[in-house]
Amino acid sequence: MTKISRLQITRKLRAMMSYINELEAFEDLTLDEYLRNFREQLVVERLIELIIQASLDITRFLLKNIHQTSPKENATVFLVAGQYGLITAEVATNLAEFGKFRNVLAHMYEEIDPVVVFGAIRETLDIYPIYARQIKEYVDSLDLENDNNESFK
């Protein structure tokens, strides 16, 4: 992996973590508060979509460049990542569901159930920091030439 590619992963991971930090502002909302505020619903939907998309981009990049495989389906990306040890099988299974959910958020926006999205706030805040840590550990374990000083912070 080149320095540029490691930097790309680092940037995407940092962006994903900033979206997670923004999403934390909504974790104490009650369902009633959430349902009454359409703007907050839109912000939460977009943040979750961005978090999922960043993780898909990172995972696809690693699978393609390290393992020469390019799964097409979002859910499959995470399952294959689990098979190759980028993330644990448990995290892969959880994220596979998020991969499917991303398609709903991006393409089936007329069918979005705000109650489901509300539930996804906590799930996102629980699983994605674990994903980030596992990806960091995986990338840090790779033997990278001329790239040892750049790490996920």
Structural account:
This protein is mainly alpha-helical. The protein has a single domain, classed as Four Helix Bundle (Hemerythrin (Met), subunit A) (Up-down Bundle), CATH 1.20.120. Helix content is 75%, strand content 0%. The protein contains six helices and no strands. The chain has helices at 3-23, 31-36, 38-67, 74-83, 89-107, 114-141. Helix 4 (74-83) runs antiparallel to helix 5. The protein is globular, with a radius of gyration of 16 Å.
Q: What is the arithmetic mean of pLDDT?
A: 91
Secondary-structure element series:
HHHHHH
Shape-level CATH architecture: Up-down Bundle
- The CATH superfamily name is bsu32300-like
- In total, the number of domains comes to 1
Topology-level CATH name: Four Helix Bundle (Hemerythrin (Met), subunit A)
- The top level CATH class name: Mainly Alpha
List the total number of helices. Answer: 6
**Head-to-tail CA distance between termini:** 18 Å
Shape: globular
Output the radius of gyration.
16 Å
Uncertain parts: 145-153
Main beta sheet, described? Answer: none
What portion of the residues fall into strands of 2 or more residues?
Answer: under 5%
Structural class comes to mainly alpha
